[in-house]
Amino acid sequence: MRDEHIKECRESLMKLIGRKIIDIKLKSRDRGCWRFYVDTDDGEFILTFCKEWDCPAVEHWEEHGHDGD
Predict the structure, then answer these.
(1) Contact 47, 35 (CB under 8 A)
(2) CA nearest 50: which of 33, 29, 28, 67?
(3) What is each CA distance from 51 to 31, 55, 62, in whole angstroms?
């Protein structure tokens, strides 16, 4: 199961390849977690990292400017 989860993470992160990065923001979250907001020419990617996770959760919004708060 872990290998499958890591494969899914990699596939999600691969969506950033070839994108023009316009802006990056970082926000600290509760319980040792962080969110990176990567604004690209193809919308915004939100990567959530937590200490105990094997890999980040990745969201993709085709619109720009989501800050999750």
Answers:
(1) yes
(2) 33
(3) 8, 9, 28
Has this prediction a pTM greater than 0.70?
A: yes
Residues in the chain: 69
Beta bridge partners of 48: 35, 57
- Is 68's pLDDT higher than 60? no
Can you name the residues that pair with 23 across neighbouring β-strands?
A: 39
Beta strand segments in the chain, E:
21-29, 33-40, 43-50, 57-61
The two structure tokens encoding residue 3:
């290998």
Give me 69's structure tokens: 């708060």
CA-based nearest residue to 42, from 58, 64, 9, 23: 64
